[in-house]
């Protein structure tokens, strides 16, 4: 019995520690400033091994970057009395606000679907707990991924990881300008024949800085002062424009 | 030049926002509308989250209306007394509207209600103004035609009469109060200043002269929009001051030009232009409801 449990534990662990990931990132944090236009994160690293490169199996590298999980409601429109209105709703408990997956080869070659279920690597696996009273929740899930992909928030970059001589790898992931603040999680998986053999996780904080940070805090912590400030700016600008135009006319 | 908006949490082109602000400012100065009915859909269109768009445009409306109001004050085309009566009704209506809005949101489908409100009110008011202005122009072009005198209707038979010297009216305060309440409710639900409803109501229901109507409506809009901005900022935290600033820089400049151009035009021309604009927005919104959208699905932020 104990042997069986030991065997199960061994199975659950990454298959072998013969090959390990050594990682570098171009940014260890992302600062959102007033002129933020998105960012490019370069993920690079190497495979460290004590033994010669195994030649009978295919090495794969998968890089994922995930933004903070947020609940989201997905609505579907239908025609009622001639007009298109939201009729069906599916609630998702947690979907990453940003999710990019880059691989060194087509997904089916580098990742076995059982491993995908366990490590939750592709976007459909990463999105958690879909609830609702509809029969076709898959369509809703696909819609979520499609909409976010169109906005550049979800990226599936098959073959975007350069893997050289089964040792050095690098990829660049573009973070769009419409980023949500929070701790972003970067995961790097090393696979052999689709089986995960090593996993490396690191965090990239993404946060507003300077004026952006100050305004955001003020709006949330001292909202009345913020509201009055907004109004004062509005009235001041209105008066200022009037005064300036008055002087020009004279 | 891209600018990151701290509350909306997206990055947009600063010149695009300045342009939108300027366009709406011109309309604001010309017609005495706050421009909310135009700026809110435009902000949706460039990808600003709806909650932020609605709240921020009320702040922008304050700026462009204030700029235009100063120009009107100089020409003494503001009926302060009438404006104050409308304002009392407006503030009550705005508070009522926010309550109603929150109730409807708890039922879902608030987007649909907002859209239907837009289509209905813009359609009815736009059509009425268009027909009326066309008739006025036809009358004016026919030499020797008899000018129809303003008839006394039920509005003039109500109690609590008050003298509004600037408007040249001696009427009950009940209709202006009710107009104020209606505008306040609609302002809160539709995220607009309400000028496009108030201006026709003042002309056709209260019988005020067109030149005074615009300044007076601006006077009322500033306070109702300011009140709504504070409500949104303190309850939903959705007023984006950077977005507002860019819109209002364009807006205040536009409003000054708009006021100048408005003075040069005849009242009928001004009304027919406004009617065309209102009908245009109405038709666009109606088409969106009637035609099958290319993307049937949409996302909203879920409750935690």
Q: Percent of residues of chain B in beta strands?
A: 5-15%
Count of DSSP helices of chain B? 10
Specify the helix fraction band of chain B: over 70%
Q: From the structure provided, what is the oligomeric state, counting identical versus distinct chains? A: heterodimer
- Shape, per Cα inertia axes of chain A: extended
- Total number of β-strand segments of chain B? 5
Low-pLDDT stretches of chain B: 145-149
Beta-strand percentage of chain A?
Answer: 35-45%
Give the CATH architecture of the largest domain in chain A: Sandwich
Low-confidence stretches of chain A: none
Q: How many helical elements of chain A?
A: 7
Specify the CATH class of the largest domain in chain A.
Mainly Beta
What is the H-and-E element order of chain A?
HEEEEEEEHHHEHEEEEEHH
Classify the helix fraction of chain A into a percent range: 25-40%
Mean pLDDT of chain A: 82
Number of strand elements of chain A: 13
Biggest interface, chains and residues, is: A-B, 63 and 59 residues
- What is the gyration radius of chain B calculated from CA atoms? 19 Å
Judged by helices, strands and strand pairing, the structural class of chain B is mainly alpha
Distance between the termini of chain A: 97 Å
Q: Looking across the biggest beta sheet of chain B, what order are the strands in?
A: 1-2
């Amino acid at each position: 019995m104990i042997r069986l449990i030991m065997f199960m534990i061994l199975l659950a662990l990454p298959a072998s520690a013969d090959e390990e990931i050594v990682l570098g990132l171009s940014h260890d944090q992302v600062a959102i400033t007033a002129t933020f236009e998105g960012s490019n994160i370069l993920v690079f690293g190497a495979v460290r091994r004590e033994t010669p490169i195994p030649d009978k199996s295919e090495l794969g590298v998968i890089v994922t970057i995930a933004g903070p999980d947020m609940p989201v409601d997905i609505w579907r429109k239908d025609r009622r009395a001639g007009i298109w209105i939201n009729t069906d709703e599916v609630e998702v408990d947690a979907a990453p606000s940003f999710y990019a997956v880059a691989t060194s080869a087509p997904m089916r070659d580098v990742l076995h679907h059982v491993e995908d279920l366990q490590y939750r690597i592709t976007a459909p696996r990463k999105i958690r707990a879909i609830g609702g009273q509809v029969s076709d929740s898959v369509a809703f899930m696909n819609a979520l991924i499609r909409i976010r992909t169109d906005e550049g928030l979800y990226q599936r970059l098959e073959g975007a990881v350069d893997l050289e001589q089964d040792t050095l790898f690098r990829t660049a992931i573009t973070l769009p300008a419409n980023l949500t603040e929070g701790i972003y999680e970067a995961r790097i998986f090393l696979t052999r024949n689709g089986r995960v053999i090593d996993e490396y996780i690191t965090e990239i904080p993404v946060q507003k800085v300077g004026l952006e940070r100050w305004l955001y805090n003020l709006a949330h912590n001292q909202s009345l002062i913020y509201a009055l400030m907004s109004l004062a700016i509005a009235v001041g600008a209105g008066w200022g424009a009037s005064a300036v135009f008055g002087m020009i006319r004279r | 030049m891209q600018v990151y908006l701290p509350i909306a949490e997206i990055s947009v082109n600063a010149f695009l926002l300045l342009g939108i602000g300027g366009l709406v400012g011109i309309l604001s100065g010309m017609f005495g509308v706050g421009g909310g009915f135009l700026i809110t859909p435009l902000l949706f269109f460039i990808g600003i989250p709806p909650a932020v768009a609605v709240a921020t445009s009320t702040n922008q409306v304050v700026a462009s209306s204030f700029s235009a109001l100063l120009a009107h004050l100089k020409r003494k085309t503001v009926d302060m007394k009438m404006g104050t009566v409308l304002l009392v009704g407006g503030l009550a209506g705005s508070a009522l509207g926010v309550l109603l809005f929150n109730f409807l949101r708890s039922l879902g489908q608030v987007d649909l209600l907002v859209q239907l409100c837009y289509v209905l009110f813009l359609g009815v008011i736009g059509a009425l103004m268009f027909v009326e202005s066309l008739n006025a122009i036809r009358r004016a072009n026919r030499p020797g035609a008899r000018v129809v005198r303003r008839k006394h209707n039920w509005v003039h038979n109500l109690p609590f009469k008050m003298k509004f010297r600037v408007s040249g009216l001696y009427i009950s305060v009940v209709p202006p109060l009710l107009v104020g309440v209606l505008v306040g409710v609609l302002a809160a639900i539709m995220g607009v200043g309400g000028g496009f409803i108030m201006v026709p109501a003042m002309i056709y229901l209260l019988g005020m002269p067109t030149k005074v109507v615009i300044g007076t409506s601006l006077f009322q809009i500033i306070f109702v929009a300011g009140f709504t901005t504070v409500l949104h900022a303190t309850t939903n935290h959705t007023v984006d001051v950077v977005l507002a600033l860019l819109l209002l820089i364009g807006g205040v400049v536009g409003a000054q030009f708009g006021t100048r151009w408005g003075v040069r035009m005849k009242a009928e021309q001004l009304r027919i232009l406004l009617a065309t604009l209102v009908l245009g927005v109405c038709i666009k919104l109606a088409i969106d409801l009637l035609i099958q959208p290319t993307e049937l699905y949409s996302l909203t932020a879920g409750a935690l």
